[in-house]
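INFO  loader      accepted 1 record
INFO  loader      residues=45
INFO  predictor   begin
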Amino acid sequence: MPTYDYECLACGHEWELFQSMNDSPVKSCPTCKKRKAKRLMGLGA
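INFO  predictor   done
INFO  writer      dumping tokens
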């Protein structure tokens, strides 16, 4: 499963998450719980 990087636009928290390519992007921040999470675009391997 690929690892995706996320950033919360509300509090600035950044984290990584293992997800299937078929999973929808996460919307809620695990730190502040606001629905301001954005999946960051990686450069790939």
